[in-house]
Amino acid sequence: MAYVVVGERSVLVDTGSAGEEERILRGMRRFNLDPGRISLLLHTHGHTDHAGSTRALKERLRVPAAVHPADAAKLRAGDSGPLIPLRFSSRVISLFLDPKFPPVEPDLLIDEGYSLAEFGIPATLLHTPGHTPGSVSVLFEDGRAIAGDLMMGGSLGGALRPFDPGYHYFAEDLPGLRRSIRKLLDRGAKTIYLGHGGPLDAQRVRERFASDFPAV
Ligand SMILES: [Zn+2]
Ligand SMILES: [Zn+2]
Questions:
Q1: What residues flank ion ligand 1 with Cβ within 5 A?
Q2: Can you tell me the distance from the alpha carbon of 43 to that of 71, in angstroms, rounded to the nearest whole number?
Q3: Which of 45, 76, 88, 208 is deepest in the core (most CB within 10 A)?
Q4: What is the band of 95 on the pLDDT scale with cuts at 50, 70, 90?
Q5: Are strands 10-13 and 108-109 parallel, antiparallel or unpaired?
């Protein structure tokens, strides 16, 4: 998946799977968005379906790739690393998911508090680890957020009941993931856009996960 955030300059959040660069650029033109305005490739995390076309897009657009330091090694290696399943169905799915993608050197390491103001975009970054150690969310001033794979909407990768909040198939650190979901809500997220399914309403997310949150 990929999101185009349009400001004075545009930021592409995630780059889909390997070989999707043409699809992303075509999709932008269809919405009258100029790919030449993209100034940054920002990654919610370093998995194959979020960083797969980064190398190709970096070469085409000649723009920097940004990732949290804790996921930088995944981009450098072109390897999603351990896909630790939360449920039995995930074991089945992991058999079909190729963790490899074209490796790419990150140009910019980004962390909590990184601002997109220089692109004319009113948003900052939250470090929301759990799915991977370097997972981040983009939180906009109006309460919208892009949270990557922090959660999943619905089942079958979001194909069924996409607005129902749920866990993603994989998490490297489940308690950390729960803390990150609560952090995103506590920082004021209202509508949460995801890599798979969604968008999710914050109130429904709170209802779904409140009993899972670790005690303070
Ligand atoms: Zn992922
Ligand atoms: Zn994903």
A1: 47, 149
A2: 9
A3: 45
A4: low
A5: unpaired
Q: How far is CA 36 from CA 3, 6, 8, 80, 160, in A?
A: 15, 12, 12, 28, 35
Distance 185 CA to ligand 2 centre (A): 20
Q: Measured between alpha carbons, how far is residue 200 from residues 10, 14, 204 in Å? A: 24, 19, 7
pLDDT at residue 215 is higher than 70: no
Q: How far is the CA of 50 from the centre of ligand 2 (A)?
A: 6
CA 196–ligand 1 middle distance (angstroms)? 9
* pTM tops 0.90, yes or no: yes
Q: How far is the CA of 175 from the centre of ligand 1 (A)?
A: 17
Please answer whether residues 47 and 74 qualify as being in contact, where contact means their C-beta atoms are separated by less than 8 angstroms. yes
- Cβ-based neighbours of 117, under 8 Å, separated by 6 or more: none
What is the pLDDT confidence band of residue 92, given thresholds at 50, 70 and 90? low
Residue where the block lists tokens 């390897």: 79
Average pLDDT over every residue of 176-196: 97
Ligand that comes closest to the CA of residue 46? 1
